[in-house]
Amino acid sequence: MSSDPGPQTPVIRIGIAGLGTATKAMLPAFLKHPGIVITAAASLDEEQLRNFKMDFPVETYRNVKEMCSSPDVDAVYIATPTQFHTEHVMLAASAKKHMILEKPIAVSLEEGLQMIAAAEAGGVTLVVGHSHSFDPPILKMREVLESGRIGRFRMAHTWCYTDWMYRPRMREELQTELGGGVTFRQGSHQFDIIRLVGGGKVRSIRASTGVWDSQRRTEGSHVVFFEFEDGASATAVYNGYDHFHTTEWTNGIGEWGEQVKPGGYASNRKTIRALDTEQEQHLKSRRSGYSGKQSMIYADAGLQQPFFGLTVVSGERGDIRQTPEGLLVYGEEGIEQLQLPNDIDGRDMVVEEFYQSVIHGKRPVHDGRWGLANLEICLAALQSSREKKEIELNYQVAVK
């Protein structure tokens, strides 16, 4: 359980739905925050629940509905598979529980709208989290643009080349209709970054997605072109097929600031191709499930800033790019180096935005409608690729 917050700090009691990789990554941020106390967990996996109970003296449940009925839970962190998000949001909202929801919000706009309506009717906060637009360098890019020092936002490009397609996957992660593939799973991060630095109001997109491996029939790549309402533009490029990696461009630093240790060329691709489906499922389950405090995923605190690929942003009078320490701003008169704190990461910012909304009533940027706008771009990218045409957007919202 989180450390004692003290009598002066209002507390949110969190119940965790799902004890997989996302939860292992979010736990350090929950435990660090003085206003968060973990009081419950729900999972279908009895072994994961036993392991969690050994480390944290919390209530444990085999289903989310029962956990939402607990009077000792004020809010729910929903880290279950995407296809269950709607059901679990509806349960939490009907029980008047605030929510942090993993991305993507859903796999259809209809489901997303239903979830938003439920949260609003219940009078509860819904924050769509784990977005890399929470990363301190991305937030700082937005701040630089808003300051006017390099003029209006005009262009952004983000590139990410990884081994995503050949990390051990559950079946649903390789099924587009269930929210699988890189456009839903990783593009949602890229699209969020672009929307945040650009102000949020995207007019249309044109995209091409790729399914290049007949054994893994979901999107493993995409190129997406954005046009904003004010004429600014952006591109998002992702390739998850485990050849070139953008860590070669980022000093070997990965998406959470960690120093990536090379495992040999295409090591994950070679490993996965040597496994049958059941062996891969077993490996994924063993790696992703909570197995004790040692399995929690920490950012490399105190070392460097996170790199979700490489992002470069342009204003009318300058450009911005990331560095391991922060940002470089290329202005009209010279280059300015901005150093950022190295003791917080994007997950910390997710928790803080949620806390400020629940306790102090501050409207979150990454609310349900922001998450819906992000989902709209994921779906539009897939549609644009199928139909080979530009798709105009209807649910975009401005940065608050």
From TrEMBL:
Residues 12-130 form the Gfo/Idh/MocA-like oxidoreductase N-terminal domain. Signal peptide: none annotated. The keyword Metal-binding does not apply. Pfam families: GFO_IDH_MocA, GFO_IDH_MocA_C3. InterPro entries: Gfo/Idh/MocA-like_OxRdtase_N, Gfo/Idh/MocA_oxidrdct_glycsds, GFO_IDH_MocA-like_dom, NAD(P)-bd_dom_sf. Residues 139-244 form the GFO/IDH/MocA-like oxidoreductase domain. Keywords: Oxidoreductase. This is Gfo/Idh/MocA family oxidoreductase.
